[in-house]
User: Fold this.
Amino acid sequence: MKKNSYFITAILLTIFFMTNIAMAGNLVIKGSTTVLPIAQQVAEAYMIDHPDVKISISGGGSGNGMKAVIDGTTDIGNASRFIKSKEIELALERGAYPVPFRIAYDCIIPVVHPSNTIDNITLENLKAIYEGKIKNWNELGGPDRKIVVISRDTSSGTYEVWEDKVMNKERVYPGALLQASNGAVVQAISKNQNAVGYVGIAYLNESLKALKVNGVEGSEATTLNGTYPISRPLFMFTRNWPIGDTLNFINFILNPQKGQKLVKSSGFVPLY
Assistant:
């Protein structure tokens, strides 16, 4: 019996150590498409510094990132908004205690096709467009074109910030065309002279025209000093207090000389 007991114990210990070796050095990151460019750049740099670590990254939206954190199917959940009360309740029911780490700042910028003559828009007019009350650009001094409204889907943290800061909790009208990512919004706007949408600052490029809001340009300076009205922090969440490679990665992204420099080079606003 003793021999059998020792033999079984040896097998179990072998399985335990082999499993831990197989799992060691692998990080999974899921969630916000806004945070995605930051996560990708930082992950590349981190893997150069830590060649034994492999990191897999996917988007899907802030809501999916939080769900993965709660379910334990990711090491880090990216979110472009803070955790909701109902998500906290669900996490506690499942024995999780989500920990937020603010990793950058962002501002959400309304964008149109470069051919549009509009340069500035008020929050009030943005809200009216997204409620379907302003329907033609000529109502704002622009071209005589019917406005095509492009928005993010409801699983997006960007949408939720827009709903809070622009819509004042009012829903976007049903005629809006919904896109699943910042990149999809960029593509849609760049191909439609009549369209309006919104993206994180890092997604601005020559195929879009950024609009000022209430006369304020979205920038690093106006985000940090609070004058731009549609700005927000960006987060990475862990299921509990992180350990091992997860903790090392979080520390890496928060490091002013490492991850925060990559935040800036990704087009976002660093913490420091």
